[in-house]
Amino acid sequence: xxxxxxxxxxxxxxxxxxxxxxxxxxxxxxxxxxxxxxxxxxxxxxxxxxxxxxxxxxxxxxxxxxxxxxxxxxxxxxxxxxxxxxxxxxxxxxxxxxxxxxxxxxxxxxxxxxxxxxxxxxxxxxxxxxxxxxxxxxxxxxxxxxxxxxxxxxxxxxxxxxxxxxxxxxxxxxxxxxxxxxxxxxxxxxxxxxxxxxxxxxxxxxxxxxxxxxxxxxxxxxxxxxxxxxxxxxxxxxxxxxxxxxxxxxxxxxxxxxxxxxxxx
Length: 265
What we know:
Blueprint: E1 8-9, E2 26-31, H1 35-47, E3 50-55, H2 58-67, E4 73-76, H3 85-94, E5 101-105, H4 110-119, E6 123-126, H5 131-145, E7 158-160, E8 163-166, E9 171-174, E10 177-178, H6 183-194, E11 200-201, H7 202-209, H8 222-241, E12 248-251, E13 255-258
Parallel strand pairs: 2-3, 2-4, 4-5, 5-6
Antiparallel strand pairs: 1-3, 7-8, 8-9, 9-10, 11-13, 12-13
């Protein structure tokens, strides 16, 4: 494979969906600087029913996104030349690219996993797990994010007191000011507003961030620490917009709720 090739689209093989996991073809943008591993993942995911466009670095991914934005998910390596995977994720969000991002890396340290989730990744997968696990996790991530009974028509704004959520662009506004939430943070706030006045458990919040049954963090209840970190960042961003913000309430040991009970419209 040519090292300088900016993008590779593997359409030579007909997708072969995994039984029981749906038949929709998923397009993956995979960024990996190792050409041998990059090609192997493209070939193996193709055998599992995916369409893979492969890139060697951040610059080539940017070029690929400029040509087409029809992809479903981005798969990133941690160590990339020039701009690291975690730095690339930050830049993608700053540029308004809100595709779900999954890290596929040789690192299995909790610190790397936590940083990935805190920055907005939806999953963190060790390369040693193999492509079978990778394929299933990618499908589950997208299945969890797909609204049930979604209509192709534009969704209506959700209004709850001073908060306005625009689900069409995944942006949150407080007193007409963009709060600057990441995609994960937006999804959590949307969950709260959809259940305004009702408590949402730690587990439900964590399932919304990743997918139902996802296991992360350290220890049986380690996910609670991750949830607290996400909520703290959300609160901080709202407080930067309004120092009197107090809508997110905590019930120790249970979860959180959006205190404003105005019906979302």
